[in-house]
Amino acid sequence: MDTKSVQRVERARLGDWRWWLWAISVSLLLFSCSDDATCPTAGEDQKLQELIVRDIDYIARTYFFLDNPELIVADFEVLPREGSIDVYRSVEEWWVVAESLDVAYGAAYIDSIGDGSEIGTGDGWDQKQFELLRPGEDYRFILDPHTEDVLGIELTRALWYNEALAVAYVNMRGDTIGDFGKPFSYDENNPLLLELVWPAYAFPDGPFGYTWSYMIRNNYNMGVTNIDPRSLEVEIHEYANRVDTWRPESSSIPWIRIFGLDQTDDTGVGPPDGKVDLTRGVIDLVRGILTFPSLTPFDPDSALVEYWTDGEFAFTGQYADLKNPELYTDHPESQSVQSKFSIVIRHEPR
Questions:
Q1: Which terminal Cβ of the chain has fewer Cβ within 10 Å, N or C?
Q2: What percent of the residues of the chain are helix, what percent strand, and what percent coil, each to the nearest 5?
Q3: Which of 317, 319, 280, 287 is nearest to 300 (CA)?
Q4: Measuring CA to CA, which residue among 304, 321, 311, 299 is closest to residue 253?
Q5: How far apart are CA 95 and CA 201, in angstroms?
Q6: Residue 30, CA distances (Å) to 24, 40, 140 in order
Q7: How many CB atoms lie within 10 A of CB 16?
Q8: Which of 252, 209, 232 is nearest to 68 (CA)?
């Protein structure tokens, strides 16, 4: 083979090598963008970044009611008085020793009535070692925006699967729920009496299944903080084999309106404008948290959907099976829990 022929072969090999390197690079990019990662869009200026969050990826084991939400709706006086709440998190023995923690023995009971009468006497209880959490450091209060009543708490760190959450407090009616304000008990035979909010290794059909609805599941991490509201775009897409998945098939109403994220315009007083609302506390731009107006975002009440869409859409007929109630009734790892929608977030990095 002559010199020119050899050079042509080497150039071909080099070209093949470069092609494979390019192919591998693209494959890695696509792989990294396939699941909960921030990726550039295919926009012309390549400025917007995109994040895709599935409906099943709500922020878990972080936000909690202190009572069954149905009980709260029926009687707001079961809510705790601000400043009259002790919050406890269970601690494993090895962690107590490793961190030299000051812990108490506590027996946490289900309080299905809301007046504390079952605490210390009921059948559903669990005894563990608990540490007392610090307000402002370990948790924040979730307040009603109108009355500023304490609706629940937000933990600054999500519970681990093997951790339980318990409380003692005085409610608005004056009932003392558990041993509120009492000194620590270091005697496992005489534990503090507490209300169980969330058990370790929680399951909806487990022995503490009554508390399954205590965990709030309508908050989503947007994957970015300090968001510029001018560049923010939020869409909801249905997993379907068609192009316009941002709206139901044969409907002109977008999913963000059906699920309550677009109820007004930029001024906060006009009609829906096709964009996610920034004036109703739906998005925490600083922390990057998206909060749906329904406690069951992808299984909203039919009356809310009718209100949000002015009666132009309902989950009936061909749309009857599009809601995803299993997200809120079944364990996340259950085979029955399947993702049906994705939240698409686009923004321009600052």
A1: N
A2: 20, 25, 55
A3: 319
A4: 311
A5: 17
A6: 10, 11, 38
A7: 10
A8: 209
Single-letter amino acid, residue 150: V
CA nearest neighbour of 168 among 131, 126, 207, 196: 196
Q: CA 238 → CA 54, 241, 300, 332, distances in Å? A: 10, 9, 15, 19
Mean pLDDT of successive 10-residue segments in the chain (350 residues)?
34 34 34 41 62 96 92 86 92 68 88 88 85 95 85 96 95 92 87 95 90 95 93 96 95 97 90 90 92 95 96 97 94 84 92
Residue 62, CA distances (Å) to 35, 70, 76, 77, 186 in order? 22, 20, 22, 24, 28
> How far apart, in whole angstroms, are the C-alpha atoms of residue 332 and residue 232?
29
Helix (H, G, I), strand (E, B) or coil at 168: strand
Q: Which two tokens stand for residue 180?
A: 């509120």
- CA dist., res. 143 & res. 149, Å (int): 5
- Concatenated DSSP letters for 288-307? TEEE-SSSSTTS--HHHHHH
